[in-house]
Give the backbone structure.
Amino acid sequence: MSSSQILKGILEGCLLSIIGKGETYGYEMIEKLHASGFTMVKEGSIYPLLLRMKKEGLVATTQKKVPSGGPKRKYYSLTSKGEEELEEFKKRWSAISGSVDTLLGKDG
Amino acid sequence: MQVSKESQEFLKNLRVYLLSSGKNEQEINDIVEELEDHLYEAEKNGKDVDDIIGQSPKDYMNQLADEMPLDLTGVLKFIPIIILGGFSFILLEDAIRGNLEYALLEIIGYPSVFLINLFLIGAAFKYLASTKLSTTKQWLILSIVGMVPTALFIGIYYLDHFIETPAFQLGTFGVASAVVVSISVFIGIAVWSKSWVTIIIPLLLFLPKVLIDMTRIQGDTKLIINSILPFLLVGIYLLIVSKKEQQT
């Protein structure tokens, strides 16, 4: 598994988490990611992931008018399958991060 | 909402790339609009298209294309239309010339050329949309793609003289029905595709010939007018269309 694939898996989990906190759209997701320190994530890279997550039925989309007027904007929300996947990711992540922390702690 | 020239260029190329990869048009519109929205927000915050898509545009387009299913019914739907349209074209031209005899080789050969051509054009557009090339190189590729069908048509024409295949000839009634069928096909495609192209192009190509036949113009003058005027008219038409497209 290449490092970009690991990052993709983590990124997908983070997107699930962001969308799980309330309906949102692409640019807002990126702002939240960057605010959490994911500055290495290229903005465009979330869209192929979002396409896949939609294909897998993890997220649903609706078109809504932008409050300030103008064209429609695509909003994402979690499906029940997406919520399950988010719970799975949280479990996987705490297992992985726990192990890595333990290991690094021993070294240091 | 207006994004920068570079962003518009990228979105246009993305659309062409996905279309020539055989993706569903609705899904293409969806993702292009979504990215346009993103680029607009990003540009307001002083970022440009390179910040958004990273790497090479080609890689990024490919990543998106990988996540979109092939729209097989959408692609297959075009094949009979192209063959039908192409055949009507040949039929109408030959009917005006009064020569309607087809060898089996031609009946199989011409549609095959249309399909090969369709495939080549798709591949060329996909390549051009994702690769930055000089204008000269772009034109070179397009000219080669444009020449292939002509070469194949000439090939079939000569092969037909060497190989005997069963021939079918149409009489006066056949010619008349061929004209009616061809014209209905053009009108049908125009209605289906909601575009005037399949009515205007045959009109520009064939009408001058029919009209000149009615005049007293004869000999070389007739030959020259017949061979230049139709293409000149189509050229002017395409120019007008592309001017219009740029304005919108």
